[in-house]
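A.,

Following up on our hallway conversation. Structure tokens first:
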């Protein structure tokens, strides 16, 4: 389970407890098609946020 920040219409939202698959070869994290679709629907207004967090933003470059 991972938490990911997504940008939706210029606004950042955090989705917690997303089931992710980690590639055994390269360590890359991927979401299943179903998970991706469900997250997409949630952040586009189909679900009520469970809370609000403050977000520190860092720009690498
Ligand atoms: Zn891989």
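Then the amino acids I'd put at each of the 61 positions:
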């Amino acid at each position: 389970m991972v938490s990911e920040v997504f940008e939706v219409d210029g606004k950042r939202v955090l989705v917690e407890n997303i089931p992710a698959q980690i590639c055994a070869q390269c360590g890359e994290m991927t979401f299943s098609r179903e998970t991706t679709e469900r997250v997409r629907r949630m952040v586009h207004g189909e679900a009520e946020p469970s809370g609000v967090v403050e977000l520190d933003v860092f720009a690498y470059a």
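Residues 33-46 form the longest helix (14 residues). Curious whether your intuition agrees with the design.

B.
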